Amino acid sequence: MLSTAALLANTPPQLLPARELMAFTLASHILLVPFGVALPFITVLMHHRALRRNDAVALRLARRWSAVMAVQFAIGVVTGTVLSFELGLLWPGMMGRWGDVFGLGFGVEAWAFFLEAVLIAIYLYGWRRLKPWTHLWLAVPLPPAALMGAFGIIAANSWMNTPQGFGLDAQGNPVDVDVRQAVFTPMFGPEYWHFVVAMFMTAGYVVAGVYAVGWLRGRRDRYHRLGFTLPFTVAAILTPVQFMLGDSAARAVFHKQPVKFAAMEIVWKTDTHVPEYMFGRLNSDGTIAGGLKIPQLDSILAGFKPSTQVTGLTSVPAADRPTAVQATIAHWAFDIMVTIGSLLILLALWYAWSWLRHRDLPRSRWFFRSAAIAGAACLVTVECGWITTEVGRQPWIVYHHMRVSEAVTTTRAGSLWAMLGIVMAVYVAVFGAFLAIVLTMRTRWRIADEGSAAERAALPPETDTPYGPRSEPEPAATGAAPGGGSDRTSGGAS
């Protein structure tokens, strides 16, 4: 059996910085993905409510969310473009050999990206230039475009986990590509729906969390109530659905990637009546240090009975499986994801119980404290989900067909470390700018809603509604020309 040190000695020196660079950029970009995928739906849903009920508060929320959505999309352009370049620069072995097989997913994502950009531009342009219902119907394709982008990325990733749809020639190169099979792999369905619902949950809890903080600070107006209720309701409804989808996805891994499942559950030897360990650390000799041991539960969860046989890590050579450290990382990421998901179910049940009994939000400050934390917790689960997926697949970049070490670039390690430092500095600046813009918009909106007359006068005038003209200005304050010229008559609604 090869030791961990021996395995590391056989890897090229540029592998570690290449993996660190890819991990950093992916971990940064994925924080924006929930808003790119799900915020359009939540915004359009609020917009529809506003028009259907003639609700000015809902309309104001929808318009402001659309502004945040646009800024987030612009930042996502930067981080997503870097990731696309890194695939070719850092992993030329994979892209050169397998790009013709699974590259369609990236093509779909690119088309969805450009379509989403056009639709966001139309949506922003239409606020004061289109009839209300026309504007809303033109926004309806925006959520499907976002879902199409997720389709492309998950199709590519699920193929890397369960590659199919090709044959191999005498040199081991792929031939006779079947595009349909390459897109719809065994892991595509479980992975796609688990991912999409996670994005909607995360966006819902994060947006609701903003208004939960406002509620805790004493802003108990209808604006904050509605801003909290709609996205939180979407997230709460999806929380138990996500738990079932996550269970289904884990069982799909058990059947299609048994060694990855063994890493997720730190199962060393193939056996039945396998216990479940909550957290704990796998040692290189197969022993487990720490953690909470629950007898037979892993076999029950995998096959619904204690006699279910669970494949262990030692079922394959050491060179073909995650190391003990990698297995522990995947295991902890998986357990953190499951733990947070379970706590979110309790939060959703609390919300449902209060609503069914009183037709009102829970009155406890602890509920709103928990709701404020839920968004950040969901972002943690998104990170943990990708850690589980990628680390658990090691050492394969294309499962059972190409190792990560075979795909990595030949660029010198020193250059890659320098590139990582540059990317980290750029990303700090980009995310800092994003945060500054969002906080500036928040301050401006708060002053517009709650500020003093002097503070509001210092701001550019706002419309009474996004579709209506600006209020008739006071001649003394605006210096209107004789003849009564005003915003209403001079194109102020444009």
Give me the secondary-structure category.
mainly alpha
Mean pLDDT equals 86
Strand content: under 5%
Number of domains: 2
Order of helices and strands: HHHHHHHHEEHHHHEEEEHHHEEHHHH
How many β-strand runs? 8
Rounded to an integer in angstroms, the radius of gyration calculated over CA atoms is: 26 Å
Describe the protein's architecture and organization.
Keywords: Cell membrane, Electron transport, Heme, Iron, Membrane, Metal-binding, Transmembrane, Transmembrane helix, Transport. It comes from Streptomyces triculaminicus. It is found in: Cell membrane. InterPro entries: Cyt-d_ubiquinol_oxidase_su_1. This protein is mostly helical and 494 residues long. It has two domains: 13-187 and 415-469, no CATH class; 191-256 and 258-392, no CATH class. Helix content is 68%, strand content 4%. The protein contains 19 helices and eight strands. The strands form four sheets. Strands 1-2 form a two-stranded antiparallel sheet. It has a two-stranded antiparallel sheet with strand order 3-6. Strands 4-5 form a two-stranded antiparallel ribbon.
